[in-house]
Structures are given as structure tokens and as C-alpha cells.
């Protein structure tokens, strides 16, 4: 899958005397999920769509890189998960609504399931996954030590 930065996309459009789409248009499902133009479109329209498609994937690549950096940063800041206070403070920083702790486990499971099939699962679910790790750590007194044999 080819990707284009905004500058590369605009330069390619200028060379073909085409007016570039906005990043929102390039990232729209209509463009991103449809590589080929319809048969009734001209060669130039087909090339225009292919350029926009490549720009849409360029945006996806940028978003993946940002998410990877954020995962690294959160892993560094909250190596053992987030406490409730840390979670609420981070949600305030990120301008997202914190979820109640009784919903976190389901959100984290949803995030992990979506991570397998989606490019960028919902940001709230992503952050909830770090809070879930904190909840698990906080309830640590109820779980056996690592490597311990548990009889039933």
C-alpha cells in the first residue's frame, strides 16, 4: 500500500494540475476503502482518486506512529498501570471523559479485541486498557504469587 505525506500529495496534484482534497476527504471511508474508481471515470479521475487513497493511507500511517509513541509514553509513565487518580488526570489532559471503574474491564477487553481487527481502536478504550492494568495491580493481594501452584 503506497502512502503519501501531505506535501507529496499536494506536489503530485500540482504536477497534474489537480486541486488536492483536504485530509478529511482523503481519510474518508469513501476514499480510503475504495482503491479503484468506477468504470465511467476518466484516467485523470482515477489517478486523482489513487493519489487521495495514498494520502489516506499516509494519514493512517501518521496516526499509527502517534499511537505507537503514545503507547510507549504511557508504558513509560504508567509501567504498572494507572491509578484512578492518574487515569482521571490523564483523561482531563486528553480531553476525554473518564469511565467508571466497573466499566473499565469491559472497555479494556473491547480494546484488545478491536486491536486485532482495527487499525486504530477508540482512544478511550486505549486509555482504559492502562487503567485496567492499574485495577489488576491494585487487586494484587487477591491473586497468587507468580509461579505459585494454586490448588482447587
The main sheet comes to: none
Helix count from the secondary structure assignment? 7
Helix content: 55-70%
Give the amount of beta strand, in percent: under 5%
Global outline: elongated
| Uncertain segments | none
The secondary structure category is: mainly alpha
Please give the radius of gyration in angstroms.
22 Å
* Secondary structure tally: strands: 0
How far is the first residue's CA from the last residue's CA?
52 Å
Rounded average pLDDT: 85
What is the H-and-E element order? Answer: HHHHHHH
Task: Output the keywords.
152 residues; 7 helices; mainly alpha; single chain
Question: How would you concisely characterize the structure shown here?
Answer:
The chain is mainly α. The chain has helices at 6-15, 23-26, 29-32, 43-77, 84-94, 101-117, 123-138. The radius of gyration is 22 Å and the shape is elongated.
Per-chain topology:
Layout: H1 6-15, H2 23-26, H3 29-32, H4 43-77, H5 84-94, H6 101-117, H7 123-138
Helix pairs in contact: 1-4, 6-7
